[in-house]
């Protein structure tokens, strides 16, 4: 059995510069589900964005988090939204992941959705829905970290859409 390669860090004397691309590749080793966070803007416009930066924070109170790049066009609307709808995408919703990953365009045109708490949109056919209200927003470097309190939730018996190493993946059954 061979030893793992040495770890590098921004403080390591052997590393002269921190490589953001290599860092992103390292983070890609962590498999994630894909969620679409959506809201209704103050002017009534529906906004939504694909993200893999979604996690649970607390069971009591029920809190989740997601992070949004400071450069995101929908960031101002998310900061002031009264509610968020989080749709955890199912394995057959890769097209929706791509659609909501785009910065602009008619994301909602022809997309089947329902309205949750506070009018926040939820995508039909998702593996899970979480209806949330704002709890806190924190500095996260080039992102803002949103913490939301879950007010309602439900899940379906659907396989989730998985992202790993820059590609969509499927789950494999483990013999046990």
Automatic annotation (TrEMBL):
Keywords: Oxidoreductase. GO terms for molecular function: oxidoreductase activity. It comes from the Bacteria. It is an enzyme of class 1 (oxidoreductase). InterPro entries: Flavin_Rdtase-like_dom, NADH-dep_flavin_reductase, Split_barrel_FMN-bd. Its EC number is 1.-.-.-. Residues 27-170 form the Flavin reductase like domain. Pfam families: Flavin_Reduct. Belongs to the non-flavoprotein flavin reductase family. This is Flavin reductase family protein.
């Amino acid at each position: 059995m061979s030893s793992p390669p040495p770890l590098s860090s921004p403080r390591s004397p052997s590393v002269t510069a921190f490589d953001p691309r290599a860092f992103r590749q390292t983070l890609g080793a962590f498999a994630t589900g894909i969620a679409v966070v959506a809201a209704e803007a103050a002017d009534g416009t529906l906004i939504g964005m694909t993200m893999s930066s979604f996690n649970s924070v607390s069971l009591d109170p029920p809190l989740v988090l997601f992070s949004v790049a400071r450069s995101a066009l929908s960031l101002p609307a998310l900061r002031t939204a009264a509610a968020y709808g989080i749709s955890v995408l199912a394995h057959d919703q890769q097209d929706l992941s791509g659609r909501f990953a785009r910065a602009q365009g008619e994301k909602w045109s022809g997309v089947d959705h329902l309205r949750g708490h506070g009018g926040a949109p939820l995508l039909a056919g998702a593996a899970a829905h979480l209806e949330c209200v704002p709890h806190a927003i924190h500095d996260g470097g080039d992102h803002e970290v949103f913490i939301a309190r879950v007010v309602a939730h439900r899940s379906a018996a659907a396989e989730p859409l998985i992202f790993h190493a820059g590609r969509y993946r499927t789950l494999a059954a483990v013999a046990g």
